[in-house]
Write a structure and sequence with these properties.
244 residues; alpha+beta
């Protein structure tokens, strides 16, 4: 009796005669060559794998660069202080050139040209001024339910949906709500305005000093509660002013 018979030989004997089973076992099992894998990796194969990995990383980085950056949320903007005006920037003289730029901008909107008399009517100018940008305009509060804001004037440094932020001649940043507030602003004629602005402080210019034919407009804040970017595409309709 054989000691420790092979399991494969026992199974083959059940399916084949003893001689056939022994021949199959010897040929297929005992003398079968075993192809062993080398212990050290193939350097060529390893380089190919690293090359493919590098290609995948480059493709991923290229796709990431093409993607648009995700916009910041309102909370992230508040934390970062994107719209906050620092103390160093709260200087009136910094925004005087902005006021002069706004005058050139508003003259172009109303079609006012130097050396040429231009007739500006309230009906024609109303729609244009309603959709205009007031960053850099010089506003003055003439009426308001908040009595402490009446008389305040300065250059607009920020125009939000519900407020105007202005900087006055005392380098003070004031936030004025638009609701129940009427603002006044002046548009001088282009002729001779440069001489006035250069010789007189802008903060001290009165209505009479702005020159003849100065246009004076009043802005009702309750009907102006829109962001500057939204007003550019909004069509305003005529309606009764309940506050009047």
């Amino acid at each position: 009796m054989e000691a420790n018979p092979h399991v494969a030989l026992d199974l083959l004997k059940k399916a084949h005669p003893p001689e056939t089973a022994s021949a199959i076992f010897t040929e297929k099992v005992l003398h079968k060559p075993l192809h062993l894998r080398p212990t050290s990796p193939d350097p060529n194969r390893q380089d190919a794998r690293a090359h493919r990995r590098l290609q995948r990383l480059r493709k991923k980085e290229k796709a990431k660069r093409r993607q648009k950056p995700k916009p910041l949320s309102a909370k992230e903007k508040r934390i970062a202080g994107i719209y906050e005006i620092s103390k160093e920037s709260q200087k009136y003289h910094i925004y005087v050139p902005l006021y002069r730029m706004w005058l050139d901008y508003i003259w172009e909107i109303l079609g006012m040209v130097k050396g040429k008399q231009t007739w500006v009517t309230a009906q024609a100018a109303g729609a244009k001024l309603a959709s205009a940008d007031f960053h850099g305009a010089k506003l003055m509060v003439v009426r308001s339910k908040c009595v402490s804001t009446v008389g305040l004037r300065g250059i607009v440094v920020r125009d939000t949906k519900f407020t105007f932020q202005i900087i006055n001649a005392k380098n003070e940043l004031k936030t004025i709500p638009k609701t129940h507030t009427i603002f006044r602003f002046q548009i001088p004629q282009p002729d001779g305005v440069d001489k006035i602005l250069d010789s007189v402080k802008i903060s001290d210019i009165s209505e009479d000093e702005m020159g003849p034919n100065t246009l004076i407009f009043e802005l009702h804040g309750s009907s102006f509660e829109h962001r500057a970017i939204d007003r550019a595409t909004k069509k305003f309709k005529q309606r009764n002013m309940t506050e009047l």
